């Protein structure tokens, strides 16, 4: 990776508070796609995790949204976070990219 900043998610449960590296590519895609740091924090904490080839995909979809509605949490505020994917390197917890898609699919092989 050419350049990598760090991003610390403080609104994640303090017991699982983490710092993720954030590539220049990921910052660019966040800006282009209107995906906020808070949206990524929700996906990383509450989303489904799927291990792909050389990456971990976090996804906050319909099932996760409904689960929080049933658990009486205010999931309505998370409606904008639905279908967001966050692709993370398994080696160093660096966020590689982020995008929106209704299906859990890989946009590229990493």
SSE map:
Elements: E1 4-9, E2 18-23, H1 24-33, H2 37-46, E3 48-52, E4 55-60, H3 62-70, E5 84-88, E6 94-100
Parallel strand pairs: 2-6
Antiparallel strand pairs: 1-2, 3-4, 4-5, 5-6
Question: Can you give a write-up of this model?
Answer:
By secondary structure, this protein is an alpha+beta fold. Helix content is 26%, strand content 32%. The protein contains three helices and six strands. The protein has helices at residues 24-33, 37-46, 62-70, and strands at 4-9, 18-23, 48-52, 55-60, 84-88, 94-100. It has a six-stranded mixed sheet with strand order 1-2-6-5-4-3. A hairpin with a 2-residue loop joins strand 3 (48-52) and strand 4. The radius of gyration is 13 Å and the shape is globular. The model has no long low-confidence stretch (mean pLDDT 78).
């Amino acid at each position: 990776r050419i350049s990598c900043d760090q991003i610390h998610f403080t609104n994640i449960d303090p017991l699982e508070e983490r710092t993720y590296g954030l590539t220049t590519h990921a910052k660019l895609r966040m800006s282009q796609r209107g995906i906020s740091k808070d949206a990524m924090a929700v996906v990383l904490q509450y989303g489904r995790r799927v291990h792909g080839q050389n990456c971990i995909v976090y996804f906050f979809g319909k099932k996760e949204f409904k689960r929080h509605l049933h658990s009486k949490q205010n999931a309505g505020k998370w409606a904008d976070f639905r279908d967001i994917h966050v692709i993370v390197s398994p080696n160093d917890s660096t966020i590689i990219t982020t995008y929106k898609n209704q299906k859990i699919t890989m946009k590229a092989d990493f």
